[in-house]
Design brief:
Shape: globular
Number of strands: 0
Number of helices: 6
CATH topology: Serine Threonine Protein Phosphatase 5, Tetratricopeptide repeat
Radius of gyration: 18 Å
Length: 106
């Protein structure tokens, strides 16, 4: 029993030193997308856009990534980029917030 506890403590220590999340799992695409949106809300728009672009480039299968990126681009005064991202996504039923952002970008 003590050996198992020691093993867990060593794993936790190694994980913390390596900078890996302590739950041992990588963030899901949804969590990464949501974290990017929170960055934008905190005023880190460039970081948020870069994170969403990276998710798109990685081929993440989450249709909201493009919608969130288009919305952030429109909010950041980049309407042409917002429209390009929105149109490239070709999401059949985009969320209302993305439609509003695309409408404002046009």
């Amino acid at each position: 029993m003590a050996r198992g506890l020691l093993g867990r403590w060593l794993w936790l220590l190694a994980t913390l030193l390596a900078g890996v999340p302590t739950d041992g799992f990588a963030q899901t695409a949804t969590q990464q997308r949501e974290a990017a949106v929170l960055k934008a809300r905190a005023g880190h728009m460039a970081e948020a856009q870069a994170a969403l672009r990276a998710l798109l480039a990685a081929g993440v299968d989450d249709g909201l990534v493009a919608m969130d990126l288009a919305t952030l681009l429109q909010q950041d005064g980049k309407p042409a980029e917002a429209i390009a991202v929105f149109e490239a996504a070709a999401k059949p039923e985009p969320p209302d917030y993305a439609l509003l952002a695309a409408t404002r970008a046009y």
